[in-house]
Amino acid sequence: MARWEGDAAGRLREAAMELYASRGFEQTTVAEIAARAGVTARTFFRHFADKREVLFAGSETLQETMVSALAGATGGPMDAVGAALDACTPFLGRDHAYSRRRQAVISANAELRERELIKMERLSAALAEGLRQRGVPEPDASLAAQAGIGVFHIAFARWVEAETDTGLAAQMRDAFTRMRALAQP
Amino acid sequence: MARWEGDAAGRLREAAMELYASRGFEQTTVAEIAARAGVTARTFFRHFADKREVLFAGSETLQETMVSALAGATGGPMDAVGAALDACTPFLGRDHAYSRRRQAVISANAELRERELIKMERLSAALAEGLRQRGVPEPDASLAAQAGIGVFHIAFARWVEAETDTGLAAQMRDAFTRMRALAQP
Questions:
Q1: What is the ipTM of this complex?
Q2: Does the distance separating the beta carbons of B150 and A151 come in below 8 Å?
Q3: Cα A113 to Cα A110, A119, A138, B22, distances in angstroms
Q4: DSSP state of B136
């Protein structure tokens, strides 16, 4: 958690996570999060649109990182998707303990689980658009993107489910290789 | 629409679809749907839990059909997933015009789009469970299921997007074959 200390966004995120975990996401208010972080509600709203966004801030960075890696990759459509998956792991896999706590909060709330699925769907659409810009025709662009998001989904789930940090990069590469092997006719 | 005539569930479905399309899903009440179908609200609730379920009734049948085909298939995990995808097309692809109208209603409403994503995620979990029962270990079972649902998603979208009925079975087979080809290392 040391990485969050010293900045308001980090303190707010930490305070929110503690409250969501102890009393539940629905029962927590922005005022309570701000008070626990030692800032005003006004400061909260400078950093996050609402209490849900505390959990999903960073989605744009994640998407940009993946799309940029996809654009710069060599090889076929699935190689490019593999590069996008590899590129997100330093960012997404940097704090196993935090990711586990976040996942526990999301799993306990239907609205948050839905939000997570929508985020995945947007990511898939962004990868498909990136593939089309590489000249990959439809439906191949969307199919490769869907396969990639499937890998992302399962690799991330395995990584957060394990009590010890097995390394998101290794999980992602393993799932990607397995998916390709499984698809062999 | 002839298939729906003569039974209350079919009339209710038709009435709901007309109202959702003309005035929007949110602005339509169960009382209005029932009145238009010439039945009581009580009859509505004998067939559907709420106005959303009119659009999603049949999800269980779809899932059972796919899981059953997966269980009875020969070959590897992806062959079994392919059998599940083929099995759903006679049921899901029987009425192109109805499916297009339904999709237009869903696309126009965020809550319904979320519901559709959740349905897909449940279907993926059911296929993964079916694969585990075939002896496929994790994470392969979940990865093959995710790939299959990705194919399902794209093939269905292409089928409903086209103004003429290109045949869901053909779209599904084409997308499945393309996905396997794309995954080749």
A1: 0.89
A2: no
A3: 5, 10, 29, 31
A4: P
Q: What are the structure tokens assigned to A167, written together?
A: 């390394």
Q: Which residue of chain B comes nearest to A185, CA vs CA?
A: B180
- Output the pTM of the full model: 0.90
Query: Could you tell me where in chain A the CATH 1.10.357.10 domains are found?
Result: 58-182
* Burial per residue of B92-110, b for 16 or more beta-carbon CB atoms within 10 angstroms, e otherwise: bbeebeebebbbebbeebe
Helices B77-92 and B59-72: crossing angle, nearest 10°? 140
The topology under which CATH files domain B8-54 is Arc Repressor Mutant, subunit A (1.10.10)
Distance CA A101, CA A30 (A): 19
Please report where in the chains the tokens 């992602």 appear, as a residue.
A172
Task: Convert the pLDDT of each residue in B137-157 to its tens digit.
Answer: 999 999 999 999 999 999 999
Q: Is there a contact between B183 and A185 if contact means CB atoms under 8 Å apart?
A: no
Measuring CA to CA, which residue among B3, B7, B1 is closest to residue B47? B7
B114 to chain A, closest Cα gap in Å: 6
